[in-house]
Amino acid sequence: xxxxxxxxxxxxxxxxxxxxxxxxxxxxxxxxxxxxxxxxxxxxxxxxxxxxxxxxxxxxxxxxxxxxxxxxxxxxxxxxxxxxxxxxxxxxxxxxxxxxxxxxxxxxxxxxxxxxxxxxxxxxxxxxxxxxxxxxxxxxxxxxxxxxxxxxxxxxxxxxxxxxxxxxxxxxxxxxxxxxxxxxxxxxxxxxxxxxxxxxxxxxxxxxxxxxxxxxxxxxxxxxxxxxxxxxxxxxxxxxxxxxxxxxxxxxxxxxxxxxxxxxxxxxxxxxxxxxxxxxxxxxxxxxxxxxxxxxxxxxxxxxxxxxxxxxxxxxxxxxxxxxxxxxxxxxxxxxxxxxxxxxxxxxxxxxxxxxxxxxxxxxxxxxxxxxxxxxxxxxxxxxx
Length: 385
Known about the structure:
The protein is α+β, with helices and mostly antiparallel strands and 385 residues long. Helix content is 28%, strand content 28%. β20 (333-339) and β21 form a beta hairpin.
């Protein structure tokens, strides 16, 4: 029985995705849930698991190609094909014919090569079967332009130029391009405003002693309870009106080497500290190794970013559309503070809230943050484990 492999919907309002790499060769065997291909879209880079056990009988979309959500990417069958076929550039060829005939390139690769005067036959491809991908061309173009600039600089002056005048173009990854597009879109879409609060984490710090808990699960717990009291923070703007979300799915921003992912803790308000901590660790580990499932980066209603993990004190993060707000957590540090007219050393943290002023006003945002602060400072954490 044949199974269609299609470009999945990897997030709300995402319309297309890029096939970065096929992890199973055409004609190869694959087990159910084994990673089948790597897909990149928006702020998401994921290994897509195989929906069934079988053979990858036909690959329809080559590496480096961007296609709309729902596009058929490949076919999976319980039986190996008698002659595996591969469609390239709209032509169906068999492996032997492809090997003996001329090399095939995607339309996007041919167009980019034409624009830059590149000989595709002279380029070593990194795609399936040695196919030249768009990323291969961008690497060649970047290297050539960088070398050309250096040569021009050396020819213009007899002495070596200062290092600052030598430029290098690093081709943008698909993830970096989509992050840039989404960040600019969010700034143009939402009326961004930020408010800052300082919270005393001394009680949280004391409770953590002897327990394998970071500060982040406590923040998630406090946020979900504050959202219950201020549900507008869990809504989205639409021209027809505000969409109020009944579920509290908290996105946790995870920094990667080449970008950012936001896996989601679903129904975070129904979970205790230990379960939240376990899910944060598990999601972050699998995000960094590209083993997240598509549904684990969808349906977030509110996002938390822990920029303090790198020592940052303040931040004004950009809202993760179509959400209404995002909470930034600064570095947790011991500081001298005034308590009851006396100076004391307390474990403190700055919290920031970037919010969409179309949806909520400053007073609502501040009341929400005051409740987050209160929950962090006054909760009986033993009951919330």
